[in-house]
Amino acid sequence: MKDKKRERRGKISRREFLKAGVVGLGMAAMGGLTEKAFGAPAVIKGTKLTILQGTYFIAPGQDLYKKQALEWGQANGVQVSADFLNWPDLQPKIAAAIQGGGVDIVELWPGWNYLYEKSLVDVTDMAQEFGKRGGGFEPYVLNSAPVKGRFLGIPHGYNNNSINYRISWLKEAGCPNAEDGNKVELTWDQYHAIAKKCKAAGHPFGQALGHSTGDPPGFCYPYMWAHGGMEVSKDGKSIQFNKPEFVDGMRKFIQAWKDGYDETGTSWDDSNNNRAFLSGQIASTVNASSIYFAAKKDKPELAKDIHHMLFPKGPAGRFYWLESRTFAILKNSKNIAGAKEFLKWWFQDKQYGDWWRIQEGYMLQPVKKYYNDPTWFKDPKMSPFREEPKYGINQGYAGPPNQRAALAWSKYIVVDTFAKAVQSGDAKASIEWGAEQLKRIYRV
Amino acid sequence: MVGSETLGKRVLGIYLPLAFFIFFLLFPFYWMSLVSFKPTNDLFELKYNPFWLQTFTLENYLYLFQNTDFSEWLKNTLIISVVSTVLSLGCSILIGYALARLRFPGSNFLGVGIFLAYLVPPTLLFIPLSQVIAKLNLYNTYWALILTYPTQLIPFASWLLMGYFRTIPKEIEECAMADGCTRMQALVKIILPLSLPGMISAGIFCFTLCWNEFLYALIFMSSGPMKTIPVGTVSDLIKADTLFWGALMASAVLGSFPIAFLYSFFVKYYVEGLTAGAVKR
């Protein structure tokens, strides 16, 4: 009888309805709590997540990232593995992962978003949310990270790179305001005049011009741009390398190389100038703040005599080669949902902010909010780097940082042009050689 | 010149070139060991003689064992090298013997094919191999390397052993078979004991190649403590543009020790094995 009544009333009694409602509300509340406490849906529980990125110079940054990833994994029931590789070994490992799988999140370096465009998950919404929360992306990020308007990785910044110098030696050579790098304002001509005096006093400047991913392009691209040269124009097709003003700039550099630099620099890689600076062989070099940090740890007396300054200005202005690194998700990942949840969580203010701050200014800010962060003012010797993002432009400028720009970069065409120039002493012929190489890449 | 009785000629013709050669070969090992026993500060101090120790320290070796997974890397490298070498040697003995002794259609073609396989560089092979390793679900396991290393080891070792087997007179084997041995028994009881120098030579070659291999180890097995010495050394002791020179050299010293040890015992056989078949007897 009762059953029949229930059928008539739509198969559910009032009591059962209320019971179900209470249970449902309870579960919803629990779900809300779970979401808050662990930050991710239960669907990713029991999955695996592998993250691959380059090693950190600032070891606490690497340790913190690993700790954060493992904590997130434990809270969400995900088995997380965070692996760190030597920088040059990252790309073959990523290439293999794209073919064979086994990695979910990868750290991409400038230009790689273009190279692996078809293998990356679109994370535009997540990147834009991070940018919006941070008061907008710095221009160098917007120049370099999006591929045809889409974000295929979330930008997390780039390591700093500027001029590291010995205060006492530059002071002796007459550099104005040498004791405070924040106040040093030079042109390339003035910088090279100081180099000449320093070399005469037995302390040449040092510059790596070998095939190495950091310091050689870190110097050559900005010097080229500052003297009116560029690889291509905005259309990404017309080669703008062989320009008279750049030839003039190169002639000056050839002379400065003889007068003011350690001439063995043509065979130096990223580590040689660090070693030369730390052993007191050179007075100034283009490098990240890794020299200063190493000196603070092992040679505190030397660290007191080190400061940083912004790149000098050239006739065309001041420039930095600066592009963002990104964290991207591979399309062949078996755990795209987990990867998205992790990145969403990691790019929150707490996690990202802690990670960024622990590197004490070694990592440049990708979003404007961190420009005024107290981190920049703890040590005045790190403050000059804060301004670097303002002047950052991408490889392949004024064109886009696409596959061709990445190819020209990986073949070290701009760097080799400089090396050829200082070795041969012929600025025009070296730049003509570089322009010819670029034409082949841009198929002009 | 060689064997001359005049002291001056002997010095000029033998001892001087030999001294130069020894210096050229041993200097990197001297430098490696020297740097591994220097404190970091001394490495950047120009006032000290760079070719001698001012202060002796074991801090680099301690760093290696306390701050990295070096003992794990050592264990991984040893297991992979030994198993790959044994596996490759087993296959190469059978292939080398078959190519040297058995006559079957296409044997020459097969021999050339195996040799050509050796010429394919790992930089071309690693992408397709990574798909195979992923399909077999072997990433970050010993098997990923134990199964891929023989692709480089077997072709060379087979050719080396084939050359060695050809130097052993067929008649010995035929006598054994006439006395009742099967072909396999003749191989195991007669040919293999006579081929010991060749096998040692192939074994050392295989072991050294496995021990030093970098690319496959980086691609297929480099997560957490699952690294080999070459991969672990560069990924954990080079941080961006800063190299931990002392620890790097300590790792290089410890990493090269097993190979040097192995060579020192078997160098005589190694040379004999490599040169067998070079001249007709």
In terms of topology, how is this protein built?
The complex is a heterodimer of chains A (about 450) and B (about 280).
Chain A: H1 2-8, H2 14-38, E1 48-54, H3 59-76, E2 79-85, H4 87-100, E3 105-108, H5 112-115, H6 124-133, H7 139-144, E4 146-147, E5 150-151, E6 154-159, E7 162-166, H8 167-172, H9 188-200, H10 215-226, H11 244-260, H12 272-278, E8 284-287, H13 290-298, H14 300-304, E9 306-309, E10 320-321, E11 325-329, H15 336-346, H16 349-358, E12 363-364, H17 375-378, E13 392-393, H18 403-410, H19 413-424, H20 427-442
Parallel strand pairs in A: 1-2, 1-3, 10-13
Antiparallel strand pairs in A: 3-11, 4-5, 6-11, 6-12, 7-8, 7-9
Helix pairs in contact in A: 3-16, 9-11, 12-13, 18-20, 19-20
Chain B: H1 7-36, H2 40-43, H3 59-67, H4 70-101, H5 107-119, H6 122-135, H7 142-148, H8 150-167, H9 170-178, H10 183-194, H11 196-212, H12 215-220, H13 229-237, E1 238-239, E2 242-243, H14 245-275
Antiparallel strand pairs in B: 1-2
User: Which chains make the largest contact?
Assistant: A-B, 39 and 33 residues
Mean pLDDT of chain A: 91
Shape of chain A: globular
Q: Sheet with the most strands of chain A?
A: 6 strands, mixed
Rg of chain B, Cα atoms, Å:
23 Å
Helix content of chain B: over 70%
The CATH class label of the largest domain in chain A is Alpha Beta
Task: Please estimate the helix content of chain A.
Answer: 40-55%
**If strands are numbered along the chain, what order do they take across the biggest sheet of chain A?**
2-1-3-11-6-12
Distinct helical segment count of chain B: 14
Unreliable residue stretches of chain B: none
CATH architecture descriptor name of the largest domain in chain B: Orthogonal Bundle
pLDDT < 50 stretches of chain A: 1-12, 20-37
How would you describe the shape of chain B?
A: globular
Q: Decide which structural class fits the backbone of chain A.
A: alpha/beta
Number of domains of chain B: 2
The end-to-end span of chain B amounts to 28 Å
Beta content of chain B comes to under 5%
The total domain count of chain A is 2
Could you give the count of β-strands of chain B? 2
State the CATH superfamily name of the largest domain in chain B. Answer: MetI-like
